[in-house]
Design goal:
Elements: E1 4-8, H1 15-23, E2 41-46, H2 50-59, E3 63-65, E4 68-73, H3 88-95, E5 100-106, H4 122-153, H5 157-173, H6 189-194, E6 203-208, H7 219-231, E7 234-238, H8 240-246, H9 251-261, H10 267-279, E8 281-287, E9 291-298, H11 303-310, H12 312-316, E10 318-324, H13 326-331, H14 335-340, E11 345-347, E12 358-363
Parallel strand pairs: 1-4, 1-5, 3-9, 5-6, 6-7
Antiparallel strand pairs: 2-4, 8-9, 10-11, 10-12
Helix pairs in contact: 1-8, 4-5
């Protein structure tokens, strides 16, 4: 299990360029005019994790399979999208289906690339997009509100429960705040998600800067970082153009290019880590001669549900999980060493998976 992250923003901010870099494909056309991306492009990317390579080396695995994330490049939003302007209706339908939003903001000057609003102001761009998303959520909820109130008057329990959440969302939206600001009881999290509110989704602000600012950002990205901190959101600095160039290089060339730029790693790595943190995701591993593989689950997942990510039979017939902490596995040179040292644990159905666990599931169906 990974997550689906929608790449959004105004036209000509670098969304498709970033998507091309993320997926190492040219399937999303990047061009200097609005709406160059007409259909949402979906691409799976590997999650870079040095731990997987270390485990595979120790286990002498024939194959190593990283966890994967889905990114969706969604057609550019414009002012008035909530009323159907531009490709608004299509944009709004596509964005409702993602788990998180990577909001690309233009934080660079370039006279050769036009800006749909005629000026470079990432905070204003963010407000434009957020406003359209809030208006779309507001319209969606107000359409449901009357019907729910009628049912609630008749003591319909399901309607009463849903209306409680709708009212919480409307209270925020009518004050000009996104739905994610609402204080939702923990036991209603699933019901809240089922409302499919765009502005309830967590946000990463992706500051697309010029090449020379890729390491530490610039004055524009600093303003975005301050905005993110105030909203309890995330922000990451990336040069989409550098990422696109890196995507065309082999491993050795990529390392050399990063060194010349003074960068420790590609911006993609930072974006994925931010996404993991934002959605509270962790990785566990399976390792053996055939393959070593990384699996993604949400923090707090119990062992049977983690097993179910591999196959539903593993969850249905779960007996136990033989578990080794990553540090123990690498320090003791694999499963045999960990077993001999008493570091291999037999965990049951109540065990909560920890980040980095190396697991072997026993099941019976």
């Amino acid at each position: 299990m990974g997550f689906k992250c929608g790449i959004v923003g105004l036209p000509n901010v670098g969304k498709s360029t970033l998507f091309n870099a993320l997926t190492k494909t040219a399937s999303a056309q990047a061009a200097n005019f609005p709406f160059c991306t007409i259909e949402p492009n979906i691409g799976d990317v590997a999650v870079p994790d040095e731990r997987l390579d270390k485990l595979a080396d120790i286990a002498q695995s024939a194959n190593r399979i990283p966890a994967r994330l889905s990114f969706v490049d969604i057609a550019g939003l414009v002012r008035g999208a909530s009323k159907g302007e531009g490709l608004g209706n299509q944009f709004l339908a596509n964005i409702r289906e993602v788990d998180a939003i990577a909001h690309v903001l233009r934080c660079f000057e370039d006279d050769d690339i036009t800006h749909v609003e005629g000026k470079i102001d990432p905070l204003a761009d963010a407000d434009t997009v957020e406003t359209e998303l809030m208006l779309a959520d507001l319209e969606s909820l107000e359409k449901r509100e009357d019907g729910l109130r009628k049912k609630a008057t008749a003591k319909d329990k399901e309607a009463l429960a849903e209306l409680e959440l709708v009212d919480l969302a409307l209270a925020e939206l009518r004050e000009g705040r996104p739905a994610r600001k609402a204080d939702i009881p923990e036991n209603r999290a699933r019901d809240w998600k089922n409302l499919q509110l765009i502005t309830s989704k967590p946000v990463i602000y992706v500051c697309n800067v010029e090449e020379g600012s890729a390491e530490s950002g610039n004055s524009l990205s600093t303003k975005v970082a301050e905005k993110a901190a105030a909203e309890n959101a995330e922000a990451v600095v990336i040069s989409a153009r550098i990422e696109e160039e890196l995507a065309q290089l082999d491993d050795a060339e990529r390392l050399e290019y990063l060194e010349t730029l003074g960068l420790a790693e590609p911006g993609l790595n930072r974006l994925i880590r931010q996404g993991y943190g934002l959605l509270d995701l962790i990785t566990y591993f399976t390792a053996g001669p055939k393959e070593s593989r990384a699996w993604t689950v949400r923090r707090g997942t119990a062992a049977p549900q983690a097993a179910g990510v591999i196959h539903t039979d593993f969850e249905r017939g779960f007996i136990k999980a033989e578990t080794i902490a990553y540090g123990d596995y690498t320090e003791l040179n694999g499963e045999a060493g960990a077993r001999d040292a008493g570091r291999l644990r037999q965990e049951g159905k109540d065990y909560i998976v920890e980040d980095g666990d190396v697991m072997l599931f026993r099941f019976n169906v």
